[in-house]
Amino acid sequence: MDSGPQGRTLAETRARSAVDLPARAGLLARIGLFAVMAVALSVLIGGWVLGLERFLRLRLDFAAMAPSTSVVLFLFSGAALWRSYFPEDQRARLAKRIAAVFAAIVAVVDLGVIFTRVGTGVDALIWPGEPAFHTVSMAPATAFCTLMAAICAWSASRPGHPQWTRWAVIAGTLGLMLSLFALVSYAFDAAALYEVSLFTAMALHTAFAFSLLFISLLLIHPGDGWMAVLLAPDSGSAGARRLLPAVVLIAFVLGLITLAATDRGLFSANFRLSLMTILMIGLLTAAVIRNAAIENATGQRLRKTATDLARALDDRDLLLREVYHRVKNNLQQVNALLMIESNRLTDPKAKEPFMAMGDRIRALSGVHSLLLSSPRPSQLSVKDYLDSLGAGIAASNGAAQRNITIDVDADAHPVDVDFAIPLGLLVNELLSNCVKHAFRDQDSGAIEVRFKVPEEGPVILSVSDDGCGLPDGATGIPGSSAGGLIISGLVGQLGADMDMDGSDGLKVTITIPREKVEAHG
Fold first, then answer.
1. Residue where one domain finishes, among candidates 178, 207, 233
2. Which residues contact 367 (CB under 8 A, 6 or more apart)?
3. How many helical (H) and strand (E) elements, i.e. helices and strands, does the chain have?
4. Are 350 and 479 part of one and the same domain?
5. Does the residue 248 lie in any domain?
6. Residue range of the domain that includes 381
7. What does the pLDDT read at residue 85?
């Protein structure tokens, strides 16, 4: 675990690198698109306008890039650059759709002309009198790449549609694989590539430009598809970024070595195939084992972290319970001191404030007592708390001797201490007022406490009695002014509304917003 200035510096460096990944991907995408545009413009101007053969084909025995391919590449790279530099608007979306439709039409027409043998390609169809287009045309593989790029462009014009994003990733990946296949085939044997009808007439710089184009299109949206996995800030993605270039380079170099050895007669083509097969198996096996080692190390770190977290949670629970125990003891000591002082008084009226304060302290102490025995020391059950609170008030006020019953009906809803304390103090005040003032002229009485948490809507707390009700002209809770102020303050603290009905006894209904309970439960 990193600690100290050096550890913090390393963590900050990793965090900055993770944040910079999308920006770096965007920069690489723009560089790639500029390169594609440069290739397309050089072929259009240098090759087809100025007639310089080296711009059309990199070697005299290689295929040339057709004008239609140059236009399509320039169109897509320019549209993607425009999208990456300027904010998206309706006109930009329309332009991308037009570009996508245009490119798709060019590709479909080219494929139709080739497969129906009407001509050599779309360029010959547009310029039938130009002799160059009898040998230079858009290859079928190039037309397929153009279709894939058109799907990417159309998808980019439909932001907010996940299904189109998926199609863009699929199309970009297929186009990248096809163009990379042609590019790698040029490195091994261009003549063998031309023997495949799909790649006949596909130029080297066409394969290179389309590879750059699809990589750039995928990098522009680093949060989509497999590129999101590769560019994620997690350790697995960081390992993949380190391994991928090495895997690609090793496979490519091994292929070149076996090809050179075959050309020099060191072994036959069939043995070369067997050698390449076993080398690729070994390379892939090494990658699998390396990935397994990384995952094992990650799993071990996760298990250690989980163990440390569990130990830290146990320590926190122990500390919380110790704090609750000390707070409960301190409150009980304060209550004992109050009782000592009240016992020195002989006037019942003078004792009432001490008794009321003792009930409030017991309400606070009850919270911490229940938290000590709770499975989660940060939460307690409302039912258990109100049952304990009602029994304590009944005992301290001699309710049994006066034939007063307190019935509590509360849902066993878990709440934390921040909600339980104001709730308990509020119920304590309401119950104390009922016991002290509701049954002065009666030999018995009944008090009901209800706390209900419905599936939807606000939480309802009600305290009712069958006593004398509100005196004539009274508008507030009977009893001392301090109790009324405490009740009003606690109702406000809970963000609740209070309603009183004194027609048949007294019923106080408090409506508590659900989020107040859910936020703490």
1. 233
2. 380, 385, 417, 420, 421, 424
3. 17, 7
4. yes
5. no
6. 311-520
7. 65
Number of domains present in the structure of the chain: 2
pLDDT digits (tens, 9 = 90+) for 350-387: 777 777 777 777 777 776 676 666 667 667 888 888 88
User: ∠ at Cα 403 (399, 407), nearest 5°?
Assistant: 70
Lowest mean pLDDT among 8-17, 125-134, 310-319: 8-17
| 213, containing H or E segment | helix 204-220
3-state secondary structure 378-430: CEEEHHHHHHHHHHHHHHHCCCCCCCEEEEEEECCCEEEHHHHHHHHHHHHHH
- Flag whether 266 is in a domain: no
Assign 454 to helix, strand or coil: coil
Sequence-separated contacts (24+) of 240-248 with Cβ below 8 Å: 243/287, 243/290, 247/283, 247/287
Sheet of 506-512: strand order equals 404-410, 445-452, 459-465, 506-512, 497-501
Contact 276/254 with Cβ under 8 angstroms?
Answer: yes
**Domain shared by 351 and 210, yes or no:** no
| pLDDT above 70 coverage of the chain, percent | 89
Identity of residue 331: L
Residue 409 lies in a domain: yes
pLDDT digit string, tens, across residues 223-246:
777 888 888 777 777 777 887 888
* Domain-embedded: residue 270: no
Q: Find the angle CA(142)-CA(147)-CA(150) to the nearest 5 degrees.
A: 125
Pairing verdict, β 497-501 and 459-465: unpaired
Q: CA 413 from chain center: how many Å? A: 30
Q: Is the pTM of this model over 0.70?
A: no
Among 32-46, 149-163, 224-238, 293-307, the range of highest mean pLDDT: 32-46
Identify the residue whose tokens are 């909600």: 419
Cα distance between residue 29 and residue 19, in whole Å: 17
The candidate with the shortest Cα–Cα distance to 215, out of 179, 167, 162, is: 179
* pLDDT on residue 368: 66
Burial class (CB in 10 A: 0-12, 13-18, 19+), 217: buried
Q: Which residues pair with 461 in a beta bridge?
A: 451, 510
Residue that finishes a domain, picked among 198, 233, 268: 233
CA-CA distance, 296 to 437, in Å (whole number)? 70
**Partners of residue 507 on adjacent β-strands:** 464, 501
pLDDT band for 144, please (50, 70, 90 cuts). Answer: very high
Residue 513 sits in the same domain as residue 385: yes
Q: For the chain, what's the residue count? A: 521
- Based on the domain organization, do 88 and 220 belong to the same domain? yes
For the ranges 89-93, 108-112, 253-257, which has the lowest average pLDDT? 89-93
